[in-house]
Write the structure tokens for this entry.
Amino acid sequence: MEYTTLGKTGLKVSVVGLGCGGPSRLGLRDNSNSEGHAIGIVRQAIDLGINFIDTAQSYETEGIVGKAIAGIPRDRVVISTKKTLPDARHKNPENEIKKGLAQSLKQLGTDCIDVYHLHGVEPKDYDFARDRLMPVMRRLREEGKIRFIGVTEGFVQDPSHQMLQQSLKENLWDVVMVGFNLLNPSARSTVFSTTRDKCVGVLNMFAVRRALSQPERLKTIVADLIRKGAVSPSAMNGKDPVDFMLRESSAQTLPEVAYRFCRHERGVDVVLTGTGNPEHLKANVESILKPALPEPVQQKLEATFGKLDHLTGN
Ligand SMILES: NC(=O)c1ccc[n+]([C@@H]2O[C@H](COP(=O)([O-])OP(=O)(O)OC[C@H]3O[C@@H](n4cnc5c(N)ncnc54)[C@H](OP(=O)(O)O)[C@@H]3O)[C@@H](O)[C@H]2O)c1
């Protein structure tokens, strides 16, 4: 495993982070997998050297992480979890944050969260999050219940990062979780230059998602982009975009291409990978640790998708 420093937090984190939500939820999205299987994925990740584990109250996997890390020295793992925003009309939203944190601490079996995020903040939520929720987040940090404050964007609703662009000007966050992948690399110009300048830690979500783990889905998306004129037909063979990506990068799989694209982006600290499949986890760690994609491939991807800021990779 390789390790890096997560921005101004100073935390030493693995460059691969285990995501316990997303389309997989440690395999629990598919009802045939057991809790024991999910705990096994977390333990496998730790055995592979991953120390950054991301979960959320809403994923209902905090208890699984808690069981998987019980007995492991607390400083061996960096725990990242999140609180969905209470309704802005709630009478006491501050108390909802406190209650959520208390529940997360209990589920995770710890007395302190390393990175506590406001979860899925959309542009419409931002003023409420800053004015009503941040004061309580800061108090919880002062009380030692959380070490660092993070935010995750609502990438599906906000694929051009409007919330992050606004909030990064106001220096609220120690860490941000950003949607970034080869089909929507817009964070490169709108987010990463600022996070680098301000030393804000960056977690990369949506590296693979569905479009970059399912070749047939990618073909449909590229064909659609060409039909709509968003991608030039001369840039890429719409019938087989995957062929070019694999052939010219000597990668074994489409997820490998997608992970290598993200890992070597200047400004990305941790690439999150979410899976319920032990073979996928092993392969993804290997992919993330491989060298950058060859320069001509990067240039072609940039020429083809570099200006897109509306796709999520779903
Ligand atoms: N706003 C937010 O806060 C937010 C939103 C989304 C995600 N996240 C975080 O980011 C983490 C990662 O989620 P993501 O949404 O970015 O998804 P992702 O990890 O990019 O993609 C996960 C999907 O890819 C599949 N997959 C993974 N490796 C594969 C491989 N080698 N071959 C084939 N398929 C593969 C998984 O299925 P298998 O189980 O079959 O491998 C799953 O369906 C989440 O767990 C969560 O922690 C946060």
